[in-house]
């Protein structure tokens, strides 16, 4: 027995298929900037150079600003960004660039001079940029004043010798901050990486803080994760719980 489809039912079925089919994804218009999201553990892309902290806002920034080296040409990096694990500990919160004394220092990006003077006896210039970033330059002799508006590459100071630990006649210490967080200035050029400090990592992941003295143990044969207390002082280290289930040495 043959089954015939009524013409009106065929039309209705075609309409349903057309409505249910999802539209193809829209292609971005030519010239529209795109922002690449970076996940934990992903290699640093050339555009932002970050592990998880994206230098550019994901919304509200239609145009990505342009940054450049603060010295002529491509200077040699004598010391890289090495922030401390905790804010009050010693570290290197910027990069050092080799240059000759008296070299002209340029602003890395467009912005407004926020500070020009001495910081703990070191002559410094600080520039605020529209994307919420702040770059610093020291030790330098300022040639600008607070409130001056600068385009990317405008001169702002002259380099002077005396930077601690510099292996050359003079070094420019170039710093980058967002609020109170120090970042790698080379990330502005797609050359560096932004290290996440432990407290910052916990804040971004949103994981609750673990009570003092409580540690996580690896999953045992049953697959459950148990929370235990730290071993008493003087206890001999034993094998992991997974390797020796139900038994611990103390």
From TrEMBL:
Residues 1-20 form the signal peptide. The keyword Signal applies. Residues 91-185 form the M23ase beta-sheet core domain. The keyword Hydrolase does not apply. Keywords: Signal. Gene3D superfamilies: Glucose Permease (Domain IIA). It comes from the Bacteria. One of its GO terms (molecular function) is metalloendopeptidase activity. Residues 230-239 have a biased composition (Low complexity). Pfam families: Peptidase_M23 (PF01551). Residues 207-250 are annotated as: Disordered. InterPro entries: Cell_wall_metabolism_enzyme (IPR050570), Dup_hybrid_motif (IPR011055), M23ase_b-sheet_dom (IPR016047). This is Peptidase M23-like protein. It comes from Micromonospora pisi.
